[in-house]
Design goal:
- The structure is a single chain.
- By secondary structure, this protein is an alpha/beta fold.
- It has a single domain, classed as 3-Layer(aba) Sandwich (Beta-carbonic Anhydrase, Chain A), CATH 3.40.1050.10.
- Helices cover 34% and strands 18% of the residues.
- The protein has a six-stranded mixed sheet.
- It is globular, with a radius of gyration of 18 Å.
Length: 192
């Protein structure tokens, strides 16, 4: 913990770099990714403060939109799209994902009921192999499922219909740093 504290102390000694952030934010991208500590959106994208609006959930799960049942995830998506006016949403899954791996392997999660119930919102990949430690195919299919789910959010549907929003599916390899994007015309994840 001490190295983190030391960095935080020195980080605050450069106020001139951050003064303009007090005027507000205007990110162009909502970046939805996993809570995994190995996935660092600003490091992956090179974004500076104020450039990404982030939503991090276990397994980068986007829960179904249910009118009258607010969730933090729905509020974040709605705020990003309707208030901040983001023009892009990226759903970024990653290799070696513990959440997707647990789904693929059908792990017993009774000891962690909140995790079990959260992951129950995601579909268990039917064609994925539990033998692949990267769970690449399962994660990529999971990313596509979350993009489809996002389309069910009224704010996203409206913005897509008006042509002011684009959705992207990314797959990040934690062991190489490579990023791949889903290409609809080939239905494959290819290097950016």
């Amino acid at each position: 913990m001490q190295p983190l504290i030391d960095h935080a102390r020195s980080f605050g000694r450069r106020p001139e770099e951050f003064a303009s952030l007090a005027d507000g934010q205007s990110p162009q991208v909502l970046f939805i990714t996993c809570s995994d500590s190995r996935v660092v959106p600003a490091l992956i994208t090179g974004a500076r403060p104020g450039e990404l609006f982030e939503l991090r959930t276990a397994g980068n799960i986007v829960p179904p939109y249910v009118p009258g049942r607010p969730t933090s995830e729905a509020a974040t998506v709605e705020y990003a799209v309707d208030v901040l006016g983001v023009s892009e949403i990226v759903v970024c899954g990653h290799s070696h994902c513990g959440a997707v791996g647990a789904l693929v392997r059908g792990e017993d999660l009774t000891a962690v009921p909140a995790v079990r119930d959260w992951l129950a919102q995601a579909q268990r990949p039917s064609d994925a192999s539990g033998d692949d430690p990267t769970v690449a195919d399962a994660v990529q299919n999971h990313v596509l499922a979350q993009l489809l789910r996002l389309r069910g959010y009224p704010c996203v549907e409206r913005a897509l219909t008006r042509g002011r929003l684009r959705l992207h599916g990314w797959y990040y390899e934690v062991h190489t740093g490579a990023v791949r994007e889903h290409r609809a015309h080939t239905d494959t994840f290819e290097a950016l």
